[in-house]
Specification:
five-stranded mixed beta sheet; single chain; five-stranded parallel beta sheet; elongated; 12 strands; alpha/beta; 48% helix; 22% strand
C-alpha cells in the first residue's frame, strides 16, 4: 500500500478568477492545500500567515509584478524556502531570464496544460522536501556542536555565546548576573577506584541536578572533564549563597551506588557576580569564578566561595 503524501500549502497569486479556478481544479484531489491571493499585498500577507511550500504567481498583478513579488519573498522570508513558479503569457527569452533572476525557480506559459502544471509542482515538492531535509540536518548539527554528548547539557561554546548576550542585557537593564563554576571533589579517585563508567554516572547525576535547579532564564553547561558552569541572572547579592547552597546540599545528599557500594560525592563552587553599566568580558568572570573555586577547594572542598560585586568593577 502506497503511503499518502502529506498536504503542502500552495499560495496561488492571480487577479483573474478564471485562472484561480483553473489552478484550484488542477489541485483538486492532490496532496496540496491552496490559498488564493488577488494581488501582491494579499500574497505577502498570506505568505506570512501560511508559510507555503510552493508559490504560483502570475507575472502581471494589479499592484506589482510576479518578479517583484519573488524578490520580496526571497528578501523578507529567508528562514523558510518556497518553490516559486511564474505564470506568464510572455515567451520572450529576456523576460524568462528576468523572471528567473528575480528569484523564481520555474515558469509556465499561459494558457497552461494541467498535467504540466502538476509536474512542475511535483518538481517543486521534491525541491522543498530536499531543502527541509537539509535544514533539519543543519539544525541537528548546530545542536550537536553546542551540546555535551555525555550529559546533554550545553557545552562551553554554547554557554559563552549565550552569556555574552546576557551580559550586555544585564548592563543595559541593570540586573545582576552570576557565574557559578562547579567542580566535583575527588573525581579522579572515583574513576581510579570504580572505573570510568562510574565517573560518567556521577557526571550525569550532577548534570541532572543542575538541570533541575536551572531556571528557563538561566543556563547550565559542562565545561569539560568534571567542571560545570552555571550562569544565573536576576538574583540579588543576598540570595546568591542560599541559591548555590541548595544545589550543593542537593548533590551532597545524593546516594550513588557503584558495584553494590553506596557512597556520596560532593562538589565545590566558586561564584563571581556582575552588576553595573560596563560589563566585563565573560572570560574575566569565568576566571574570577575559577579563582573562587580554587579557594573553596583549598578550604576543604564541598564549599562555596563568592566574589562580591565591588571587586569586579572594571
Amino acid at each position: 500500500m502506497v503511503e499518502a503524501l502529506p498536504k503542502l500549502s500552495v499560495l496561488v497569486v492571480d487577479d483573474s478568477p478564471v485562472y484561480r479556478k483553473l489552478v484550484e481544479q488542477t489541485l483538486e484531489d492532490q496532496p496540496y492545500s491552496p490559498v488564493f491571493a488577488k494581488n501582491g499585498r494579499e500574497a505577502l500577507e498570506l505568505y506570512a500567515q501560511h508559510v507555503p511550500a510552493i508559490v504560483i504567481t502570475d507575472w502581471m498583478l494589479p499592484d506589482s509584478t510576479g518578479p517583484e513579488l519573488c524578490r520580496r519573498i526571497r528578501t523578507e522570508s529567508s528562514e523558510s524556502y518556497a518553490y516559486i513558479i511564474l505564470l506568464t503569457s510572455m515567451t520572450e527569452k529576456e523576460n524568462i531570464v528576468k523572471g528567473l533572476s528575480s528569484g523564481a525557480d520555474d515558469y509556465l506559459t499561459k494558457p497552461f496544460d494541467r498535467g504540466e502544471l502538476l509536474a512542475r509542482i511535483g518538481v517543486g515538492r521534491r525541491t522543498v522536501s530536499l531543502h527541509r531535509e537539509i535544514d533539519a540536518k543543519n539544525k541537528l548539527l548546530e545542536e550537536l556542536a553546542h551540546t555535551d554528548s555525555l550529559t546533554g547539557l550545553p557545552n562551553r561554546r554554547a554557554i559563552e555565546g549565550w552569556a555574552d548576550r546576557q551580559l550586555r542585557g544585564a548592563a543595559r537593564h541593570g540586573y545582576s548576573l552570576w557565574v557559578i563554576h562547579a567542580d566535583l571533589d575527588c573525581f579522579k579517585s572515583i574513576n581510579d577506584s570504580h572505573g570510568h563508567g562510574a565517573g560518567d554516572q556521577v557526571l550525569k547525576e550532577f548534570a541532572a541536578i543542575l538541570k533541575e535547579y536551572t531556571r528557563a532564564s538561566d543556563m547550565s553547561g559542562r565545561m569539560g572533564g568534571d567542571e560545570f558552569l552555571t550562569v544565573l541572572t536576576h538574583v540579588g547579592e543576598g540570595h546568591i549563597r542560599p541559591t548555590v547552597e541548595r544545589l550543593r546540599e542537593r548533590f551532597a545528599s545524593k546516594k550513588l551506588s557503584f558495584g553494590g557500594e553506596s557512597m556520596s560525592v560532593t562538589a565545590s563552587f566558586g561564584v563571581c557576580g556582575f552588576q553595573g553599566k560596563e560589563p566585563p568580558e565573560f572570560s574575566r568572570l569565568v576566571r574570577e569564578a575559577d579563582k573562587a573555586l580554587y579557594c573553596a577547594k583549598r578550604a576543604g572542598r564541598n564549599q562555596i566561595k563568592i566574589e562580591t560585586f565591588s571587586n569586579l568593577v572594571p
